[in-house]
Amino acid sequence: MENTNDMPLGSQAQVEAIVRAAESALEVRRRYQFFVWTQSNLQALLPHQLTICGAYQRQARELVFDAFNSVSVPEALLLGFTNPRGALMQQLQGRWLDARCRPVRLAVSELDGVAVAEHRAALEAAGFSSLVAHGLSRPQRPSEMESFFVFGQQAVAGSGAQQQCHHLELLMPHIHSTWHRVQVQERELRNLPDTGSPLSAAASAQQRAGSGAIVTGRERQILGWLREGMSNQQIGEVLGISALTVKNHVQKILRKLNAANRAQAVARAMTMNLLDRSPVDAGTSD
């Protein structure tokens, strides 16, 4: 396990990337926007394929976690990461506190104890090599966490790993405030209808017309495979259709969800609860 020391920022490009990430965070209001932000602006500074976000909720009186993943991750592993009282998150938070609330990186193999053995094996099987954790606590009360984040990485090595931890320390105030803003906005939207955004209009239409009225069963299935990071060719081979047919489906999905790219389409589909089922079970009707 490593904890960071004061380090130079590095190249001018890295400085500019940090500024862009901080500035673009101000525009993030929704859950899908947060996912897109982490997959674009944060990737250059902290490459990762799994993001675990925790925010303290006063009603629950504990951190409540959510997960974003750009690669396939077993459901049991996601449950382990989102269980605030589970052995996995307790160990990661303990390592962070031991590092005096500085960013910590540990190899997946460093997860110790019988209680996390299954999670360690699942992470290794999914190709993850390291975890980076950081958060924010109340002033003078390090154990009273306001937020806690874990980033799962599949391949990071060398001095760049320490540099990325330093980037995370610089960006943590922005990540913290952005995630809390998203939580507030999502709670408000659950209580008050938002008729102004394209996503809300699509979600409302979906609810009025019933499941699948906007996105077909085949499109839901393709969205599921997009979430797994598969190409048009790979999806076509699985479904027994041509890559061109898959491309046409993807273009329809982007139009229906008013998404600019695949990552945004997946994020919006997640917000609309279109990906609760596996791609195999999502149906095949056109």
UniProtKB/TrEMBL annotation:
InterPro entries: Sig_transdc_resp-reg_C-effctor (IPR016032), Tscrpt_reg_LuxR_C (IPR000792), WH-like_DNA-bd_sf (IPR036388). Keywords: DNA-binding, Transcription, Transcription regulation. Residues 208-273 form the HTH luxR-type domain. Residues 193-212 are annotated as: Disordered. SUPFAM superfamilies: C-terminal effector domain of the bipartite response regulators. It comes from the Bacteria. It holds the Pfam family GerE. SMART domains: HTH_LUXR (SM00421). Residues 200-212 have a biased composition (Low complexity). Gene3D superfamilies: Winged helix-like DNA-binding domain superfamily/Winged helix DNA-binding domain. PROSITE patterns: HTH_LUXR_2. This is Helix-turn-helix transcriptional regulator. It comes from Roseateles agri.
